[in-house]
């Protein structure tokens, strides 16, 4: 019988110390802190404020950052653990580029995802990261991979996504567009990464075990990072109880499923033969001579990076378009005249207004709300913030998108035109202006900038253009959805909509 988490927590002695301090909250005297930083007490740091706001960390951090003249705050946790959180573009550039070598992910971060991602590219540092990055960068610049990905995208949209939405029109009921887009994205990323088709968009079938396992593993791994005391999840993992037991079971399913696909791929390739005509990433990595575990970690990392990020961005954009009909009309003007063959690769290059809409949606609702590094040595950020060796340093895309100092007084408005030097007019081909990736670090920046960035925009523009040119999306509810940050953020409760066929333009 599984030991309840509550009983386990009682057994964990250090929590008794926290309770003692909690009961004497009024008698404790906080250290002097800037008005923008949470109250910090001897030994326990800001743990009380952190626990109080744990359910609303995004808004709490954003509120504190707005009060900070430097747009940087420091949160002190138990026993001197410090987290520095910044929405200052100059600091972001320093962390991600200027002094890149001093800000690796670090062991505290890689431990959070290590059970799931192993030594994959998104969870490694140093030479291990560098070697994977070189291989992946080479493959992602290959024209053959771009063409292979585009054909998969075209096939998935034309043969699965559009028919699913058409069926929803015929039935007349509601559909969770977020769920449909997640299934679509999982199909695409598995075909590109593994050469394997999970066929998630067949809504008559149950969700594959691998998909459910990914969801569980991603959620629990992300919640490790919100534990005020890391030793809690580590001890639960050691004892194999509660959420850590569920995580171990989910990871086992992910690893075994992917390893089985790898072994089948090896067999079909007859690894000593010619693999030059195999286009999926798995075949390419196997051809490079990497071992099975290394290849497994790499492809799992790419699946994790691609499975929910694009679907999350598109979900929020579709909701925003429902609130901004004038913006939707401009996208429709841009994709006017799509033939029976759908959008071509060159058509996508011209869709600058749609890209601006996607950027604006991700500014307000970034698929990854925050990202953290750990200082290898003492440092000073451009705004004067002192960084000590071992400090957790977090840049915060969600908060950056809500800073008046970064985006102006109209930061709260959904305004795709802010991405152009001049306001685009109907019938013109507007040119996107250059925006610093340190001001808009949704795809990271510097040496770790997302190598799949352009591929992601290609996918999102293709889906948005293909769907909007055929269907009207009508939300069932008009209330503002709740943004939930995990490894990839999502819309709480989904995006339930009615689908209507659009009159031919």
UniProtKB/TrEMBL annotation:
Keywords annotated in UniProt: Heme, Iron, Membrane, Metal-binding, Monooxygenase, Oxidoreductase, Transmembrane, Transmembrane helix
- Whether Transmembrane counts among this entry's keywords is yes
Annotated localization = Membrane
Q: Which GO terms describe its cellular component?
A: membrane
- Please give the superkingdom of this protein's source: Eukaryota
The protein's required cofactors: heme
Among its keywords, does the record have Cytoplasm? no
GO molecular function terms listed in the Swiss-Prot or TrEMBL record: heme binding; iron ion binding; monooxygenase activity; oxidoreductase activity, acting on paired donors, with incorporation or reduction of molecular oxygen
Where, in this chain's numbering, is heme bound? Answer: 450
What residues form the membrane-spanning segments?
A: 6-25
InterPro entries reported for this sequence? Cyt_P450, Cyt_P450_E_grp-IV, Cyt_P450_sf
Q: How does it sit in the membrane?
A: Single-pass membrane protein
Into which family does the record put it? Belongs to the cytochrome P450 family.
Q: What is this protein called?
A: Cytochrome P450
Higher taxonomy: Eukaryota, Viridiplantae, Streptophyta, Embryophyta, Tracheophyta
